[in-house]
Design a protein that fits this description.
Layout (H helix, E strand, L loop, with lengths): L3 H20 L11 H24 L19 H7 L6 H16 L13 H19 L18 H4 L13 H28 L8 H18 L8 H9 L6 H16 L1 H4 L4 H15 L2 H9 L2 H16 L2 H22 L3 E7 L2 E7 L3 E2 L4 H9 L6 E5 L5 E2 L1 H17 L3 E5 L10 E2 L7 H6 L2 H17 L7 H7 L8 E5 L7 H4 L7 E5 L7 H14 L3 E7 L3 H7 L8 H17 L5 H23 L1 H9 L3 E7 L6 E3 L6 H12 L1
Helix pairs in contact: 1-7, 1-8, 2-3, 2-7, 2-12, 2-14, 2-15, 4-5, 4-12, 7-8, 7-9, 9-12, 13-14, 14-15, 16-17, 23-24, 24-25, 26-27
Length: 660
């Protein structure tokens, strides 16, 4: 560029661009870096630290200590440099390196770890200086000197405050702007990556503010450009050492910076006595902490879609540099993300409604062009005369190509294949109204085709959905419209008034499926029997269910002989069941007495219906009506059914058993 001063102008431009990026909230990019890439970055840096520092620990210091690129300025690469180091062994460096490693590894097993102001790395540096000075006096042949030590130039305070104005006219050169943009992009990307990586290893899992980091770094690079400094960016090695040393607040990095400044200005002669082998040992241990075997095992257990981008990121960084390696890993991670979206753009379930099967396709929050092939193959593969629901209630965005696909399926494919289609939940911005051709409610034809056994099976399936939390989707407003002209329920249920028992809910039923009669203790009287007869004769129900439940308050009232006011009319009807439970059960167990009485009362109510209503027994004998007892477990939500009575033979067996 014609001189370092011209480069400083480019750095000043980069700082301004970073400051603007932070003010415009450009740090959001950090949230879109997959965790497998971040962990790959951390592991790669750990491996690089080990590979790059082993030569320094052996005394081969032909390369700079902080070079991370695969190809090094000295013409070698990471591996050739490593192998070459075995031809340049330095006994003094090896001794210092081994002792330093041993101190770092066993530090936590000594009482010294309790001294908070004496970190192991500082202790190792101090010991290495003392040991090397001892070599100088007693064993000069292993004394480490020259380029094997830290080599800092003497600090010139006056140079620090000299503002670079002489080359400022270079700001008119477009090449300077290109370099400025390049620095801004590279430094910002590496910073965002490192920021995510440090947050990842933070034991408190705090979130660093990326926009504030960009603004602060922008100001830093502007100042560095003005005073002739080099670009600044976040450094994962320093940050990880900071975390592993037990630092908890941002004050640690500020104090660290101040200590560096004070050290450079006042302790250069002491710092220049530090053997590079000791620093190499510190970085090797840091590298191991970043790339532990447990991290590789953890990523492998998460599956190949997580493990492969993780490994590719590591390999990419090892054989290129940090930024290029991360971009390679990011490309692989994006491939797996797109592949996942391509394979799983929606959920598809088959639901049984009455005598028919319905295919429900539920679209995700975002449906993009990448989902087109899978959605088309699914829709075009639906059999003829099917019932299909395409549910977009949870969808915020549908790509225009997908909308055209749905339009073609609705207007052409479904029509030609006699498919009944419901398209539910499409938003106004891309579809004005729902398209509904059928509603899952009972009609007269379906009601007449149902048998008591089939109805019981449907209710059992509905209760299974309720217990598992897999309730069927209800379009209640459409059901209201569909049932406005008449009702064709399949069953009448007598249950208790207990607030925890709502038959329509626990059987996951639609509007118009059930007639619900509720009375305390599910007792029987003439009005209830009349309602049951009416529901079958005039409305067409095929099944009567008498359902009791656990821990029934009405039964408990009868056990304690409470008969105030009109309550006596209920407790008197329950009393025979309580008396029978006392005879059959454990008299010493109040809980068992209550549950036994609850079950017996359900059976008693069913027997009373059969004894009282000749119409109901005649209909059961003819097979057009069924009756069954049920018991609802308030602890689990399960409904346990008794034996279905739906023929003359069943009826005679039950009546005979009761007589005995």
């Amino acid at each position: 560029m014609g001189g370092f001063e011209v480069f400083s102008v480019a750095l000043l431009i980069a700082g301004v661009l970073q400051l603007i990026a932070g003010l415009l909230k450009g740090g959001f990019i950090a949230n879109y870096i997959p965790s497998n890439v971040i962990k790959g970055l951390l592991a790669a840096i750990g491996i690089l630290l080990i590979l790059k520092q082993i030569p320094h620990a052996l005394g081969y210091d032909a390369d700079h200590e902080d070079i991370f690129a695969f190809h090094q300025p000295n013409g070698e690469n990471t591996f050739s440099h490593l192998f070459e180091s075995y031809s340049h062994l330095n006994p003094g460096a090896i001794i210092i390196g081994i002792i330093s490693l041993a101190l770092l590894i066993f530090w936590d097993r000594t009482s010294l770890k309790k001294i908070k102001f004496l970190p192991s790395s500082l202790f190792v540096v101090a010991i290495s200086i003392g040991l090397n000075e001892l070599f100088r006096k007693v064993a000069p042949s292993v004394y480490v000197e020259g380029h094997h030590l830290v080599n800092l130039p003497a600090a010139d305070v006056l140079a620090l405050i000299k503002i670079n104005l002489r080359s400022f006219p270079a700001i008119a050169n477009y090449e300077v702007w290109i370099v400025g943009f390049t620095i801004a992009i590279v430094a910002s990307l590496e910073t965002m990556l490192n920021l995510e990586a440090v947050d990842n290893i933070d034991p408190h899992k705090r979130e660093s503010p990326p926009n504030k980091e960009l603004m602060a770094q922008g100001v830093g690079n502007m100042v560095a450009g003005l005073f002739g400094g080099i670009p600044v960016t976040s450094v994962i090695v320093r940050s990880s050492v900071n975390v592993y040393s037990g630092a908890k607040t941002k004050a640690s990095t500020i104090i660290h910076g101040l200590l560096l400044l004070v050290s450079i200005l006042s302790m250069t002669s002491v710092l220049n006595k530090i053997p590079l082998a000791a620093l190499a040992a510190i970085l090797i241990v840091t590298g191991y902490k970043l790339a532990k075997i447990t991290l590789f095992k953890e990523m492998y257990k998460k599956g190949l879609s997580q493990f492969i981008p993780f490994i590719i990121t590591i390999v990419g960084i090892l054989f290129t540099d940090l930024l290029i390696g991360v971009l390679i890993g990011l490309a692989v991670a994006i491939f797996y993300i797109l592949r996942s979206n391509f394979r799983n753009p929606f959920t598809i379930e088959k639901e049984t409604h009455y005598t028919n099967e319905t295919i429900r396709i539920e679209l995700p929050n975002q449906v993009s062009f990448l989902n087109k092939a899978t959605i088309k193959s699914t829709l075009w593969g639906i059999p003829e005369k099917s019932k299909v629901i395409i549910d977009a209630a949870k969808t915020d965005y549908i790509d225009n190509d997908i909308l055209e696909l749905l339009h073609d399926f609705k207007n052409v494919v479904s029509t030609e294949k006699n498919i009944q289609l419901n398209m539910i939940g499409l938003k106004n911005k891309y579809q004005p109204i729902d398209h509904v051709e059928f509603i899952d409610v009972l009609d007269k034809q379906t009601q007449q085709a149902l048998t008591p056994g089939k109805i019981l099976a449907l209710l059992k399936t509905g209760n299974e959905r309720f217990v598992k939390g897999k309730w069927s989707k209800k379009e209640f407003l459409h059901q209201v419209d569909a049932t406005s002209s008449g009702q064709y329920p399949m069953a009448v249920i007598l249950s208790c008034i207990d607030s925890r028992i709502t038959p329509e809910v626990i059987f996951d039923s639609n509007l118009g499926e059930l007639i619900s009669i509720r009375v305390a203790g599910n007792i029987i009287n003439d009005d209830i029997i009349g309602s049951m007869e009416l529901s079958h004769k005039e409305i067409g129900t095929k099944l009567i269910i008498v359902m009791g439940h656990a821990k029934c308050g009405a039964i408990n009232t009868a056990i304690h002989k409470i008969s105030d006011g009109y309550i006596s009319g209920i407790t008197e009807k329950i009393k025979p069941s309580v008396d029978k439970a006392k005879v059959q059960g454990d008299k010493n167990s109040q809980a068992n007495l209550l549950e036994d009485a609850c079950r017996l009362n359900t059976q008693n109510s069913m027997q009373e219906i059969l004894k009282t209503s000749k119409y109901i027994t005649d209909q059961i004998s003819s097979g057009s009506l069924g009756i069954v007892s049920a018991y609802y477990d308030t602890g689990t939500g399960d409904v346990i059914f008794g034996e279905l009575i739906s023929s003359n033979q069943h009826l005679l067996e039950v009546m005979k058993t009761e007589a005995i």
